[in-house]
């Protein structure tokens, strides 16, 4: 039931403080401030191979950044439809991790089965705990988003990201990369995510105003660095799916290698710019875009310094630890797609040509 909400997507976006909290509690202990020990001994793992499709693939890419940064664990992420048909070269110490809301996506399931047949250890980050992937994998890493009705994935995505970030911290501890103090600090940061997601939901009014303009655009660019790069691609996918506006997500540093040619006064550029170690780099990319007449919308904390250039509109996001920025910034990205679609009058919960679960290739 949608209750007071107009669409399931809107309801599911607003459920995220709870679904993230619930998912994090699976992997982390709020009371002791420790990451729970996992069925897979991360100290004995050489590499992680994540396999997924669509939004789950972007969650996987965010996971990669965390596994490498916090656990020093090499991690590859691949689209399942490519992985399964290209004869990937995998080494024995690799754990294959399927990421999927439904646990039934044909290409992801086939990739998982193939990895298992190769003798690899397998795990599945899935939201439907009775699904084929949940049964097939050696280890089930559940997400607790609850049933997701909207075809465009929202709360399942943030649940996947929550699980992967928490697992990256667990891996860092198991591999001796993270000491007790850092572990407590990272666990605390993760448990702040539900409150900060709730705060991000208050950006509603600002986002609605931006969506009025986005609805008039034919092309939109999303930019980000670090974990904001996969989130930029997720933002572009969400906008495409439900508003049918052409959008692309790019790594901000790639801009000058081609996409900057697309910049004109009609193409809005949405920048995801939390105050992290690469903020200054992103800000200087935005100044370059603004200098070329591109209308920039910078989503950043109010405390972040302003980049040079006219025509940069700011949307204030909550201040947060860089680890949880993908969870907090997912909210404005989802709301932007949602309000743009509502403004255009498209069928938000049932976008044309899309099915909730892709069980055929
Ligand atoms: C996008 C979306 C899809 C799914 C993809 C994988 O909003 O929902 O891109 O993420 O089809 O589905 P699952 O996670 O069920 O494997």
From TrEMBL:
Superkingdom of the organism of origin: Bacteria
A Gene Ontology term for the protein's cellular component: cytosol
Protein localization: Cytoplasm
UniProt gene name: glmS
Entry keyword annotation includes Transcription: no
Domain (SIS): residue spans on this chain: 38-177, 210-351
Molecular function terms from GO: carbohydrate derivative binding; glutamine-fructose-6-phosphate transaminase (isomerizing) activity
Catalytic activity of the protein: D-fructose 6-phosphate + L-glutamine = D-glucosamine 6-phosphate + L-glutamate
Keyword NADP: no
Assembly and oligomerization: Homodimer.
Assigned keywords, A-Z: Aminotransferase, Cytoplasm, Glutamine amidotransferase, Repeat, Transferase
Function as written in the Swiss-Prot or TrEMBL entry: Catalyzes the first step in hexosamine metabolism, converting fructose-6P into glucosamine-6P using glutamine as a nitrogen source.
The protein's enzyme class: transferase
Organism encoding this protein: Brevundimonas bullata
GO BP annotations, alphabetical order: carbohydrate metabolic process; fructose 6-phosphate metabolic process; protein N-linked glycosylation; UDP-N-acetylglucosamine metabolic process
EC number: 2.6.1.16
Protein name: Glutamine--fructose-6-phosphate aminotransferase [isomerizing]
Catalytic site positions: 356 (for fru-6p isomerization activity)
């Amino acid at each position: 039931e949608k209750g007071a909400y107009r669409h399931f997507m809107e309801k599911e976006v607003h459920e995220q403080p709870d679904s993230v909290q619930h998912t994090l509690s699976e992997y982390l202990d709020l009371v002791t401030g420790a990451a729970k020990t996992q069925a897979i001994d991360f100290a004995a793992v050489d590499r992680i191979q994540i396999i997924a499709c669509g939004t789950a693939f972007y969650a996987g890419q965010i996971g990669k950044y965390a596994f490498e940064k916090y656990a020093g664990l090499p991690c590859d992420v691949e689209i399942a439809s490519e992985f399964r048909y290209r004869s990937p070269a995998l080494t024995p110490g690799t754990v294959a991790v399927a990421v999927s809301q439904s646990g039934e996506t044909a290409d992801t399931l086939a990739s998982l089965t193939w990895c298992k047949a190769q003798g690899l250890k397998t795990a599945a980050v899935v939201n439907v705990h009775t699904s084929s992937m949940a049964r097939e994998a050696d280890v089930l890493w559940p997400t607790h988003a609850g049933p997701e009705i909207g075809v465009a994935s929202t709360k399942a995505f943030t649940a996947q990201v929550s699980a992967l970030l928490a697992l990256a911290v667990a891996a860092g501890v198991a591999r001796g990369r993270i000491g007790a103090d850092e572990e407590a600090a990272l666990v605390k940061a993760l448990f702040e995510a539900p409150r900060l997601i709730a705060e991000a939901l208050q950006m509603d009014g600002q986002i609605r105003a931006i969506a009025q303009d986005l609805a008039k655009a034919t092309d939109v660019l999303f930019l980000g660095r670090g974990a904001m790069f996969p989130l930029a691609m997720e933002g572009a996918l969400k906008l495409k799916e439900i508003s049918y506006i052409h959008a692309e997500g790019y790594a901000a540093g790639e801009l000058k290698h081609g996409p900057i040619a697309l910049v004109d006064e009609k193409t809005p550029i949405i920048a995801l710019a939390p105050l992290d170690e690469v903020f200054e780099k992103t800000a200087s990319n935005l100044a370059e875009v603004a200098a070329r007449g591109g209308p920039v919308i910078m989503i950043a904390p109010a405390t972040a310094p302003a980049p040079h250039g006219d025509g940069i509109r700011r949307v204030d996001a909550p201040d947060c630890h860089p680890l949880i920025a993908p969870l907090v910034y997912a909210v404005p990205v989802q709301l932007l797609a949602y309000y743009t679609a509502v403004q255009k009058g498209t069928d938000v919960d049932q976008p044309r040509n899309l099915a909730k679960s892709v069980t055929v290739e």
